[in-house]
Amino acid sequence: MTTPRKVQQLFDLTGRTALITGGSRGLGLQMAHALGEAGAKVLISSRKAADLEEAVASLQAAGIDASFIAADAGKPQDIQRLADEALARLGHIDILVNNAGASWGAPAQEHPLEAWDKVMNLNVRGYFLLSQAVAKASMIPRKQGRIINVASIAGLGGNPPFMQTIAYNTSKGAVVNFTRALACEWGHLGIRVNAIAPGFFPSKMTAGLLSMAGEDNIAKGAPLLRIGDDEDLKGVTLLFASDAGKHITGQILPVDGGVSALIGG
């Protein structure tokens, strides 16, 4: 029987590699910092090179080995290129964070088909295609890997009437069961698949809603009376990515100040 490792060893990601989509700002950049601060070599991706350059500078300023590849995670050809280039650069991928996402606000009866397809292609199909590409080329041959999907509490239930985001909610509900199904199918291959379901965090995607509804009003709806900040995803990201979570797979963990406890999610 091996001697149990210390907590610091279980959470240590030294020598590991990580690919994070939607990593140039917001939640993705926060998660990249978490993985890099724990010792991982990180590669971030999003559509705009200028945003990625700024994000990599912030990661490197924190002493993190970081680089970027610009790619559109809503386009199959870009997803394959991202996987190929990431593997060429990193050698292998230990940790994949599927975070790139989009939303669209419109009444369900008037929701444009083009917008529906844009959300679904990025939030669901993109997660599947990148997971498939990375697993086939790196994780399955090595019999190890961690995939972290970013879902949302919007995928656990409906919304107040003023939040008309039917495509986003549907896509995140799909991510929830995609996570469970993939975890069950790939567990015997040494691949753990889990999802984080954030509540309200300040971001470009939520800026309009926070402005309309008021940050204080939204915070009052959470048992902890606050919204997320720029470090609230770090702990769960590290848990799912490290050996500290080696017996956890197929789980969806809300990080929402307790909102999902109120709605029974």
Describe the structure.
The chain has 265 residues and is an alpha/beta fold. The chain has a single domain (7-198, 233-255), classed as 3-Layer(aba) Sandwich (Rossmann fold), CATH 3.40.50. Helix content is 46%, strand content 14%. The chain contains 10 helices and 7 strands. The protein has a 7-stranded parallel sheet with strand order 3-2-1-4-5-6-7, sandwiched between helices. Helix 5 runs parallel beside helix 6. It is globular and about 55 Å long.
Helix-strand layout with pairing:
Elements: H1 7-11, E1 17-21, H2 26-37, E2 41-46, H3 49-61, E3 66-70, H4 76-90, E4 95-98, H5 113-142, E5 145-150, H6 166-186, E6 191-198, H7 207-213, H8 215-220, H9 234-241, E7 252-255, H10 259-263
Parallel strand pairs: 1-2, 1-4, 2-3, 4-5, 5-6, 6-7
Helix pairs in contact: 2-9, 4-5, 5-6
The total beta strand count reads: 7
Return the average pLDDT rounded to an integer. 94
Report the CATH superfamily.
NAD(P)-binding Rossmann-like Domain
Low-confidence stretches: none
What is the radius of gyration computed over CA atoms, rounded to a whole number of angstroms? 18 Å
Class per helix and strand makeup: alpha/beta
Largest sheet: 7 strands, parallel
Number of helices: 10
